[in-house]
């Protein structure tokens, strides 16, 4: 709290000109708030409003029970941060933030949550029976938050009180960022394309169901012993035959049994 | 003109909130969203310093961070789908396959 007062108080520690010195901490805080409001421009008000909104949306995201609602609040947080990017003359990145984060990735999140049929507590149909120790995580959270708050608050109240260098009109547009991207950063840009390709292939490989893996192994001519070594069990029945009913398909693969389907008749996975 | 401290405070708050989410929550999906929040906080700091120095390298780096975050979300959600198929749970405390 004293750091806040030091920040907003007049530099030489005196009161306002023509006024009696403030008697206590409360009026000092009031004068600090008044000076803060008097020196705040419209762009700063806009920035503070959306920054506050982004922080509130982020807090709700972290604290909400239902993952779908949390994802929607996350979209709100990302959109507010995109507006803050515009205030920082990063217009191209603001567009990118809305397109990639608030658009594509949130669709992915909501889609996965819907596919998984998660209830409010994150479990499917079974309640959490394991009572595990969580206090190391809470302790780590307290220590890390306290340490980072101490260091960063101490730094930010003393440094970076500047609006930065003078910039031209083209700063942060798609053209200038693109020139940087396809000039000095060209190699990294191509590397990112490789990374995205690897991520897509990895996602497809990891998210395959057991049935698909068995089908592929049988199509590749793997023997029964090979299937057993791969942990896929026996392949006596062809799992890819389309006229099998659901119960018949589930029979040789006990790990596929999810229990009763939900009320909507949703069959998890494939 | 915005003072550079304001976006740095925003980055700080987003990162701290995401870190609390990763450490305290038990739902895998919410933990992934918290990781996205932390990456977003790092992006805000990168763009703020890019504005401070008038140099576009920070914005280019923030774009790479967005790409990495998208790749991480894709693979992470695939792992969640795979885990959910075998364990029917999104609770990290029940994912103890390597330990048991």
Largest sheet of chain A: none
Q: What is the chains' assembly state?
A: heterodimer
Question: What would you give as the CATH superfamily of the domain at 40-122 in chain A?
Answer: NADH-ubiquinone/plastoquinone oxidoreductase chain 6, subunit NuoJ
Overall shape of chain B: it is elongated
Provide structural commentary.
The complex is a heterodimer of chains A (270) and B (100). With 270 residues, chain A is mostly helical. Chain A contains 11 helices and no strands. In chain A, helix 1 packs across helix 2, helix 3 (42-63) packs antiparallel against helix 4 and helix 4 (67-87) runs antiparallel to helix 5. The longest helix of chain A is centred in the middle third of the chain and has 26 residues, at 91-116. The radius of gyration of chain A is 28 Å and the shape is extended. Chain B has 100 residues and is mainly alpha-helical. Chain B has one domain: Orthogonal Bundle (Helix Hairpins). Helix content of chain B is 77%, strand content 0%. Chain B is built from 3 helices and no strands. Chain B has helices at residues 5-24, 28-53, 57-87. The radius of gyration of chain B is 17 Å and the shape is elongated. The interface between A and B is large, with 99 and 75 residues.
Sequence-ordered SSE layout with sheet pairings:
The complex is a heterodimer of chains A (270) and B (100).
Chain A: H1 2-8, H2 25-38, H3 42-63, H4 67-87, H5 91-116, H6 135-156, H7 174-181, H8 186-206, H9 210-219, H10 224-229, H11 246-250
Chain B: H1 5-24, H2 28-53, H3 57-87
Features:
heterodimer; A: about 270 residues; mainly alpha; Four Helix Bundle (Hemerythrin (Met), subunit A); about 60% helix; about 0% strand; B: about 100 residues
